[in-house]
């Protein structure tokens, strides 16, 4: 279609003109609000108080979401919002990892706020177009596209001009349609969800960036919590932003020199050390597949085991050979860590795009574990194909993998059978059945319709419809708060059990990843040590989301002198870099303590948001026993020596002559008690009551004693 | 025979004559590339793993710098 025809095919529903502004010290000082029910478009000012209390990014998103919903709001109510925010450091091009968007909404999986951190160009382009955040409320009648032209100062709501449903096609078509020329495509970013997001609760959002060398729109995912499901429920087909003229100083930092110098220091480190350390530039996060296996931490067969004899078939060197090398891939300008890997000309063997050659992004570690070992599939072709379909259909790879693993264990235990799955033989390792399942989910058909609702809903369904034992399902169903666990084995690390369980959005490891510090290094032996780590790391990591930053350049590269520092796990030099660039961009001078307090403000606000929605207390922080210890005899006996030794050393219990069942019972009582003790210690350290409610003193100390927040505390003490 | 012990990351591990840092890391299956090794508080550089002996009763720390995904 010619450009003229494309233009005329677009039907305008609403146009809004705004005056272009200038970003001042990292903030556009304005946000954009769109109500799709009435096609209302508004601008909102960003106040100093908002910046002081919420910093930006996820902080802004949660504040707007709080104001938009009531405790009764469900994910598919029109008042639910999707907020996409960037953050004050987002869009700088000098420091690696500075182009992230933060997305929040009320999740269909958890019925409370979920947040997801995503690359691609949308967040920075949104800011350069004049907005620190975009709120989307209401529901459209028909599929729509929201288009922001950041140079002309125009926002348009249009009827969706394309029929394509899946993201790899949509992103290409819309990039083509909204760009004036091939050269112009780099100025476009598209946010979309695919066909599965219309049926499943685990729908994700794809954020595109145009890869000028591949001449293809690449996709990065806001994966967790079903945000894509909400997006399609609002009948949004896509968001498109266009901005021409990206340069290094658009944020108008208070002190550009410091931003430049700090960035150069890190670029040099990455250049000199990455090949010797994590090979992020060669293979990205997949570098840890074989390491996780070696340390018995790679989830295998629904987290029963941490290791498999066939892991070598899907190790990072196999994927390194599949992804195109020699193309440094960053998901935002200036990221020399460049971990965004892709395989070109990948031939699909199943589904609606069978026979086509496509670009597949990834795989990241999480995908290889979720779509590989956890479901017992050790065929890299299949892992890549599932990865492709998850992305284009808009399914969260982590939730898809964990829930398929759960289904497979149910199948092997007779809770499911061929009749109940409509003919799918969902044993561990059945790649063909896993592929058919994903296609069924995308069409909302057959067993795929049930599966796509996630582990929590399936547990309820299997108990009700098939008379399954709820206790067993609760033990093996790896979800908490309704969200599926991400892909690490926490059984042998109490601190990581807390890192999964004592979180705001559910068991995603982005708050704390403490397995090595705890289980291998034994650096945090006491409950107080673990509690300190479960205070510090979640707060430190929350900060990336307030600022539009990527976490990876913090600790996937370490300075040569790091080992001589007193706290190497924190990477003190990099913490100082963040303090320096925040101060340099915003002009607000902070230190490393204030950095943590910025996060604490938002973290406690989010905790109280959960409580306001009826969740977020101690009872919601419990985790399934599969995350804590061996549920089945098979699991215990596979690591009998380890468990017997622990019984003896930790409990003085003599395992000799005892049955496996007896030993498992003793072990379980011990481990569950440990988790309770850890919970007590962590709540205390975070300034919460034993029931997990932030105290008024804590809020006052943080300056977060806002009337509506105080009310929630008072109602829940 | 009395088994002699060293401490590795605060936990007991059997020691035997001729044990080097390299051999110890192998036995513990510590294959991660970013490990900091200290013996009784003194840093051992990777080039010296093969030639550095671990002695009876030593306190060895093998700190893995992996803070995860
Ligand atoms: S480290 Fe990877 S994910 Fe993070 S910003 Fe850079 S390319 Fe993107």
Attribute tags:
heterodimer; A: 717 residues; alpha+beta; Aldehyde Ferredoxin Oxidoreductase,  A, domain 1; Aldehyde Ferredoxin Oxidoreductase Protein, subunit A, domain 2; Aldehyde Ferredoxin Oxidoreductase Protein, subunit A, domain 3; 7-stranded mixed beta sheet; B: 69 residues; mainly beta; Ubiquitin-like (UB roll); 5-stranded mixed beta sheet; 1 helix; globular; binds iron/sulfur cluster
Can you describe what's shown?
The complex is a heterodimer of chains A (717) and B (69). Chain A has 28 helices and 17 strands. In chain A, the strands form 4 sheets. Chain A has a 7-stranded mixed beta sheet, sandwiched between helices. Chain A has a 6-stranded mixed beta sheet with strand order 3-2-7-4-5-6. In chain A, strand 11 and strand 12 form a beta hairpin. In chain A, helix 3 runs parallel beside helix 23 and helix 18 (494-501) crosses helix 26. Chain A is globular and about 80 Å long. The N and C termini of chain A lie far apart (62 Å). The mean pLDDT of chain A is 95. Chain B has one domain: Ubiquitin-like (UB roll). Chain B has one helix spanning 21-27; strands at 4-8, 11-15, 35-39, 42-44, 59-64. Chain B has a 5-stranded mixed beta sheet, with no helix packed on it. In chain B, a hairpin with a 2-residue loop joins strand 3 and strand 4 (42-44). The model of chain B has no long low-confidence stretch (mean pLDDT 91). The chains are: A alpha+beta (717), B mainly beta (69). Chain A binds chain B through residues 276-278, 285, 288, 291, 294-295, 365-366, 486, 488, 509-510, 513-517, 520-523, 525, 537, 555, 558, 562-564, 568-569, 571, and chain B through 9-11, 29-34, 36, 43, 61-69. Bound molecules: iron/sulfur cluster. Iron/sulfur cluster binds at residues 96-97, 119, 330-332, 335, 337-340, 550, 552-553 of chain A. The site of iron/sulfur cluster has 14 residues of chain A, from helix 21.
